[in-house]
Write a structure and sequence with these properties.
The chain is α+β, with helices and mostly antiparallel strands and 574 residues long.
């Protein structure tokens, strides 16, 4: 067994694992009524889906970092010998689902000395530099090895060295044994499922895990995206925010032109997560209220006549939505790295299912959005928000904003914008935020929101947009908030008066519309240089952001977070 050296001291570990610094999001417990009220067959199905999700976590650990599994084994061995440092390190390892992550202050956390996060994570060779990567691809294309390069640059392959070249191995082939075990569990789950649609989806998903064929994934995704009235939720999330290597190709003009000439897309690698839950009917009914308005929103998107989008204004919106009580979130979707996902809109634009008539589906995470400490929330408002506007702050309004954000992912250009490279995800997340805000007035006119709710969404969103510290450029979800804060400040959406935020409510939506139009134009043009300029011009941490950030740090000491999954752990052992 490989030996590792701990990177964090006992003092640092004791601090980071203390309850004041380590936030815990609690998934469903064993006595949860949502679980108790399930039919017997669905309880059995749930057990197998939980087991499948944890197998997926093992797979994702390997594509996240080459050393995750051996470090986990090392920690477990040291813990068995009574090593307290290993015990505390394991708490953080389990929380962030790997050796390397980032905390809520945007500091890099490396749990072992000498092993840092790489741009290519665990999906590219450890010793592969950006320059060598580009050079090898250029050489292979010039030698006519087009199909080989396509396999390297697909979102579903692990890249390895092959002599002086590279080779792309499909995930399913690379991790065949574990994917087969997952498929077995999902097949077992399908045998006891009480819902016909869900059963059909599970069978398609199991089949897709046995054979390396993207079209099988597409069939499973297409079916998954139609699920609306099912008792259970099971998702294999596939998102490509973590891969910083593939996106560098957009910076190399010569290589980008070669790829375009040969019809090759450089798609960032997918990282894999598992979500298992019980659909909350009441919460889901509330979500569905917005669906009737989606075609109207699509028509009102900037430059709507210049591109195709996922929501067709002239037909029923292919968009399902469910609110889910979570049993387990594993792998990429469950990793607490600076934050954790509130909701997801999938499949993403790069997925094959969208080309065969498939739609998209929003899943909202109830246990993750719940606020456990209202006293702390009030402390935060007292410190940073104009007292006269406290009446418009509502934590539920953050959920309404998130609903708008997730639906806005389905609006705008349908193409995946790979040419924007490392700025692609920042631009897309910014679009989703601005899409949510830009339509608040229209949705109020249409009757979706009351005037009071309109004010609550606007004030809550602006107040929540301030961060504790400046993020790194690799944090797409956080970079976009800094960009928005600067953009809004310069145009008068808010003022900082006596150290507190005062939101100029009626200015926010028009400014959001301006920013949305600029972002969509960048997506339409797909110009890397313009995307880079736009991000860097707006990604500026101002003195006012620092002022509010310092106040937030005093109130919220959280550095790391984790999930606690009591019911899932019980089911794993049955």
């Amino acid at each position: 067994m490989r030996e590792f050296e701990f990177n964090l001291s006992m003092e640092e570990l004791e601090k980071r694992t203390h309850k004041d610094y380590l936030m815990t999001k609690k998934m469903l417990k064993c006595d949860a009524p949502e679980y108790i009220e399930l039919e017997k067959g669905d309880k059995e199905t749930l057990k197998h889906l939980v087991k499948a999700a944890y197998i997926l976590e093992k797979i994702n650990m390997q594509i996240d970092c080459h050393h995750n599994l051996e470090f986990k084994e090392f920690l477990e061995d040291e813990i068995s010998k009574g090593n307290k440092q290993a015990e505390l390190t394991k708490i953080l390892f389990d929380a962030q689902k790997g050796m390397n992550a980032i905390d809520t202050m945007s500091n890099k956390i490396n749990l072992a000395k000498g092993i840092k996060e790489l741009p290519g994570k665990g999906v590219y060779p450890e010793d592969l530099s950006k320059e060598e990567f580009h050079s090898i691809l250029t050489k292979m294309i010039n030698e006519g090895k087009i199909e080989e390069v396509k396999k390297i640059l697909t979102q579903r392959s692990v890249v390895e060295r092959n002599g002086d070249e590279l080779i792309g191995i499909d995930y399913i082939d690379k991790f065949k044994e574990d994917f087969s075990k997952m498929a077995d569990e999902i097949d077992k789950a399908s045998e006891t499922s009480t819902n016909e649609d869900f059963t059909e989806y599970l069978k398609l998903q199991a089949k897709a895990l046995r054979t390396a064929d993207p079209m099988l994934d597409a069939y499973a995704d297409k079916k998954w995206s139609t699920l609306q009235d099912t008792p259970l939720e099971f998702t294999i999330t596939r998102e490509n925010y973590e891969d910083e290597m593939t996106g560098t190709i957009a910076e190399n003009k010569e290589l980008s032109e070669l790829l375009e000439k040969n019809g090759i897309k450089a798609i960032p690698k997918d990282f894999l997560g598992g979500r298992v839950g019980i659909v909350n009917k009441k919460g889901t009914d509330a979500l569905m209220a917005i669906k009737q308005y989606l075609p109207t929103l699509a028509q009102n998107m900037p430059y709507a006549d210049e591109y195709e989008q996922n929501i067709n204004p002239n037909s029923d919106a292919k968009q399902t939505m469910v609110d889910v009580d979570l049993v387990a979130v594993t792998g990429d979707v469950g990793a607490y790295r600076g934050g954790i996902t509130l909701a997801e809109n999938l499949p993403n634009d790069d997925k094959l299912s969208l080309t065969i008539g498939g739609g998209r589906r929003n899943v909202y995470h109830r246990q993750i959005r719940f606020i456990s400490d209202m006293k702390k929330l009030q402390e935060r408002l007292d410190a940073i928000l104009d007292k006269n506007q406290h009446q418009f702050y509502l934590d539920e309004a953050d959920h309404w904003f998130t609903i708008g954000h997730e639906n806005a992912h389905s609006l705008g250009p349908k193409k995946a914008c790979e040419t924007l490279g490392k700025y692609r995800n920042i631009i897309e997340e910014n679009k989703a935020d601005m899409g949510s805000l830009a339509f608040v007035d229209l949705l109020t006119e249409l009757g979706m929101y009351t005037e009071e709710q309109r004010k609550q969404i606007i004030v809550t969103t602006i107040a929540d947009n301030f961060l504790k510290s400046k993020p790194t450029l690799s944090q797409a979800h956080r970079v976009r908030t800094v960009m928005q804060n600067k953009y809004f400040a310069e145009r008068g959406a808010y003022d900082i008066i006596d150290g507190k935020i005062h939101v100029n409510i009626d200015k926010v939506v028009p400014i959001a519309k301006e920013m949305l139009a600029e972002i969509v134009r960048i997506q339409i043009e797909g110009d890397f240089d313009k995307a880079e300029k736009y991000v860097l011009d707006n990604f500026i941490w101002t003195d006012n952001m620092e002022l509010i950030g310092q106040k937030l740090q005093k109130i919220n000491k959280t550095l790391n977070g984790r999930t606690e999954s009591e019911l899932a752990e019980k089911l794993l052992n049955e």
